[in-house]
């Protein structure tokens, strides 16, 4: 058995790509459009996976599925979440906040944070290696919304 990808449905391709690529830092590795099926599939990888040949090796990818005739999807929380390891949890959260992303669960413990995509998909961010020492403003920052 080989893990291939995780698929999430998106209601707005531009908003999803802005979030996952411009803000979160992922890279589009391939795209498929089906006029007959009326859908677009966009496959994303992390920069590290792309540098290691994600598109050629078929490493696990994130598949964004855009069904042309559907514009919104409720219940993103029932999916659970996607998780990504980051080099610096504090720098990542600061960059996301500056880009207008709400940090739903701040990294108070120096290890874990949650944000949401424009379609309500929870994204868990985990510090690579050991947790960082707790520091402000994160240590005293409250949760916002659900995660």
Describe the structure.
- With 147 residues, this protein is an alpha/beta fold.
- Helices cover 20% and strands 30% of the residues.
- The protein is built from four helices and seven strands; from the N terminus they run βαββααββαββ.
- The strands form two sheets. A four-stranded mixed β-sheet has the order 1-4-3-2.
- The protein is globular, with a radius of gyration of 16 Å.
- The mean pLDDT is 88.
What can be said about the biggest beta sheet?
4 strands, mixed
Distance between the termini: 31 Å
- How much of the polypeptide forms β-strand, as a percent range? 25-35%
Please state the CA-atom Rg, rounded to the nearest Å: 16 Å
How many distinct beta strands? Answer: 7
Let me know the average pLDDT.
88
Q: Give the overall form.
A: globular
Label the structural class.
alpha/beta
Total helical segments: 4
Helicity level, as a percent range? Answer: 10-25%
- H/E order of the elements? EHEEHHEEHEE
- Detail the poorly predicted runs: none
Strands of the largest sheet, in order across it? Answer: 1-4-3-2
What are the salient characteristics of this protein?
7 strands, 147 residues, four-stranded mixed β-sheet, 4 helices, single chain, alpha/beta, globular, three-stranded mixed β-sheet
């Amino acid at each position: 058995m080989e893990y291939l990808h995780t698929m999430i449905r998106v209601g707005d391709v531009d908003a999803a790509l802005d979030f996952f690529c411009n803000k979160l830092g992922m890279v589009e590795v391939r795209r498929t459009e089906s006029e007959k099926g009326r859908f677009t599939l966009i496959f994303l990888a992390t920069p590290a996976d792309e540098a290691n040949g994600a598109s050629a090796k078929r490493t696990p990818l994130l598949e964004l599925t855009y069904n042309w005739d559907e514009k919104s999807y409720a219940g993103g929380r029932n999916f659970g979440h996607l998780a990504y390891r980051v080099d610096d949890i504090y720098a990542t959260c600061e960059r996301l906040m500056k880009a207008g992303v709400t940090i739903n669960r701040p990294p108070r413990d120096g290890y874990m944070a949650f944000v949401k995509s424009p379609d309500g998909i929870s994204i868990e961010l985990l510090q690579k290696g050991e947790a960082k020492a707790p520091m402000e403003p994160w240590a005293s920052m409250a949760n916002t919304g659900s995660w």
